[in-house]
Amino acid sequence: MTPPSDRFVYTIPASYRRMENLHILFWLLKDIGWCMIWKPLGISMILPTLSIALLITWRTRSIKAELAHNLAIVFWITANSYWTISEFVGFDTVQLGYGLTGKHLTLVPFLLGLGILTYYYLIEKPRETRLEQVATL
User: Fold this and answer.
1) Domain of 110?
2) 102 in Cβ contact with 91 (< 8 Å)
3) pLDDT value at residue 131
4) Using CA atoms, how far apart are residues 6 and 88, in angstroms rounded to an integer?
5) Number of domains the chain contains
6) pTM of the entire predicted model
7) Using N-to-C axis directions, what is the helix angle for 64-89 and 107-119, rounded to 10°?
8) Which keywords accompany this UniProt record (predicted)?
9) Of the candidates 48, 39, 125, 121, which has an alpha carbon nearest to the alpha carbon of residue 84?
């Protein structure tokens, strides 16, 4: 007998897929702007990139695995965007004390995303697996 997790099919409506593809385009444009030091492009793509990431997260909130991964992406884009702005504006190298600079504040959203994924893989996913195993008995 096939375990329940192997029978579950996750489908994405075409409109969601188009939105995700547009999200990738905005994210690439943002990072190209950052890489090439094209400040208007890099900064102008932050809002659409982050907005679509939040919308994707909201729409997939009922599936715990999707929610965890999409929240991690939101925090990743937040960190990446803060880092971009800190370099463009010039506070990435400002000393904050204890050997930390403005760029090091990027660790806050990065670590939040990592924490969410750690929680999901160490606590939530094993719980889901146990529940699936009990359901098949």
Assistant:
1) 4-136
2) yes
3) 81
4) 46
5) 1
6) 0.88
7) 170
8) Membrane, Transmembrane, Transmembrane helix
9) 39
